[in-house]
Specification:
This protein has 104 residues and is mainly alpha-helical. The protein is built from three helices and two strands, in the order ααββα. The protein is extended and about 50 Å long.
Length: 104
């Protein structure tokens, strides 16, 4: 195992630990655009049925949890781990594609 692999595995382990053990304790208060829309009083202008609700993964995930898991903390932890793995997989794949093309 080379030095880069150790860093990658360590970073992934830290990210998964945060996703699994800290995300269930995140604030339930509105964040990001939800908070801005409330502060600036334009939340009523949002779409009644957002286009994202039509995507396939919307059948499984809702907000920051998984629909069919009744325990909210467990549901949020699993959704966090899933999201972390998806982002890692995408970053890994893009990295592999980029380095393969630069080596050619």
């Amino acid at each position: 195992m080379n030095k880069n692999s150790i860093w990658i595995i360590s970073g992934l382990a830290c990210a998964l630990g945060i996703a699994a053990f800290l995300s269930p304790f995140a604030s339930k208060s509105p964040d990001g655009l939800d908070r801005v829309s409330q502060d600036l009083k334009f939340e009523s202008k949002s779409a009644a049925e957002p286009p994202t609700k039509k995507l396939p993964f919307a059948q499984i995930f809702e907000e920051y949890s998984i629909k069919f898991i009744p325990n909210q903390k467990v549901s949020t932890a699993i959704a966090g781990v899933t999201g972390t793995m998806v982002v890692f997989g995408l970053a890994w794949g893009i990295g592999k594609l980029a380095t393969r093309k630069s080596e050619s």
